[in-house]
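note to self: dont lose this again. the chain is below, predicted strucutre after it. 108 aa total, dont forget to put it in the shared folder this time
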Amino acid sequence: MAITDEIKSKETKQAYEEFLSDFAKLREDINTLKKDFSELTKQGASDAKSALKEGANTAEAQTREAVESAADELQEMQRQAERAIRKKPLSALAGAAAIGYFIATLRR
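---
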């Protein structure tokens, strides 16, 4: 059970790190878009409008990809958790009870 938890933890951490990396890249892209937009306004409003639309589409596509990737990772982790619960339902029940007790204790 500890090995399964360690694997889940590694996969969760990896998915989280990938999500953070994608988010940082998206932030960089947005900053680049801001700079590009500033330069383009000097060249003309119509050119800036088309470049902004293109940049927005790119950012939207990257965001969609990042969200889909994160969703896929979370679905895989859910499947793994379900398999672990099916293999050892009593251990899962005991773990859930312990977590519930811990949370209830923290709320007091």
